[in-house]
Amino acid sequence: MEKTLVVLKPQVLLRNIENEVMDYLTVVGEVIAREVITVTNDQLDRHFSSSREWIEMLGRKAKAICEYFGIDPADIHSTLDPYEIGKTVREWNRQVYLKGPVVVLVMEGEDVISRVRKITGSTFPFQADPGTIRRDFCGHLTAKDYTRSAIDNLIHAADSIDSFNNEVPVWFPAFLQQEQT
Description:
Blueprint: E1 2-8, H1 10-14, H2 18-25, E2 30-37, H3 41-47, H4 52-68, H5 73-77, H6 82-97, E3 102-109, H7 112-120, H8 133-138, H9 143-147, E4 155-157, H10 161-171, H11 173-180
Helix pairs in contact: 4-6, 10-11
């Protein structure tokens, strides 16, 4: 059976919607491990790449979102340089995880990675299909939410077996210990 890693970001607990989000997830796979943790800076350093290429990709995405909403990225970021914008967005993303505890899940099932990703929805809730977690619980976000801070889209889900293998040691080392015993 395939496994995947899911992180429910702090807003899930702060908004008291964990049970509702779990209702979506458990339709597509079985939760085989769960832990509530307080995120550390070390975990965030390991989760969010510091490579120039990745940071520039974040900056390009942020610029595209500004342009989508008809906002000049320079008005928000004081620059058009994707690397500089990306550094800001990377820090915004880190801050999302530091707002409170997160729920880390390991799920298992047939084709569970793609099924969890599908029920999670697009990174940007306004692009997510109705019936997905991000659309149904984040559909209220405005252009300001998308352009002046990280998108608090409630959930992170590994996108491949390689991501699962790389992310479990970061987010859920106790699961690895359980698997080895």
